[in-house]
């Protein structure tokens, strides 16, 4: 049932998710073989320079292989036929120097230049050892294209128009899965310095986006399925997926928040027990997930009856493109978007948070969050304003359950923050005291016993 098995000779243990996939030696590794005794690739935290050199070499091999699969002529002909204007596509070769402008961790963008000055982007997915199975990658392409189609056809939210898409399959003449979309001018909001007036202007436009999304309720929780069928399909978030004998196993779609949250947490607990996630702090993570499942879910979901709303799940600020006057030109990178509960969908986007304060465990709202809530109140959107004022529960919850699985230091702060946001903390109780109590409470729990036993002989 693991997503990938360890590729060390003779080992069939589940590979650790994310950090168990090493681009440098092209391996999936289990907890044991990821250890220093077996795995000798440079660690970026210990030897950054050596890591960077090896990583650049690996990226060159990966990107050269990917770009060689793209049929440039077929892409050019397809785009020209769709728009009925001649265009050119540059010969593709990987250039390390320009990588930041054309690729991210998951995608690479090929420009399609029309003779009348218009530019489209062909967005293709990177493929390396860290990539999820092809069936999942293809679903992401369809879901992202569906989300763009939904937003452009049903709302006024500024997004690039999409012109074509195809999954990665032998019958695809372009050679790789892709989405063809408008290239937008504008720079990422996260790269801008904003004065008070600029910030207010952006918040007013962001309020428009929230109000538009609120007008489109869904009956289920999950990701949009397909551009030709804008219904809700399974959740595609990476930590929720599994594989069984080469078949992709997905969770959802869900008709209720209780079912969605319970299923996600149980799946995460399974990953902890299998040694696929939270491998550096499995006992802490197990206790947190167990406690949330047993003691928190009921109260959180009591007020999450539905309907559900679309949310950009990667809202760190670089997804909003603005012009020089801070007008939003477009909101991009919807590949992980899904429908979710009202309180999660309309909590403040992460880029409005005071990150240092938040990671220190404080639930105090940032100035931007308070301003955003008051903009919404001023528009008579009291419900949306309440979601922003009460957004810490959603933020902390997302970071506790399956979020940042390698960040051992932050889990206690997120968890204590969640309890405090729910007003469930005992006065002055520290994480250590809570942990001690939880160890006692679950001392007969088989899962916990297994993890403790495993830790003692490793
Ligand atoms: Zn390695
Ligand atoms: Zn192994």
From TrEMBL:
<dbReference type="Pfam" id="PF01636">
    <property type="entry name" value="APH"/>
</dbReference>
<dbReference type="InterPro" id="IPR035896">
    <property type="entry name" value="AN1-like_Znf"/>
</dbReference>
<dbReference type="InterPro" id="IPR051678">
    <property type="entry name" value="AGP_Transferase"/>
</dbReference>
<dbReference type="InterPro" id="IPR011009">
    <property type="entry name" value="Kinase-like_dom_sf"/>
</dbReference>
<protein>
    <recommendedName>
        <fullName>Aminoglycoside phosphotransferase domain-containing protein</fullName>
    </recommendedName>
</protein>
<feature type="domain" description="Aminoglycoside phosphotransferase">
    <location>
        <begin position="133"/>
        <end position="337"/>
    </location>
</feature>
<dbReference type="InterPro" id="IPR002575">
    <property type="entry name" value="Aminoglycoside_PTrfase"/>
</dbReference>
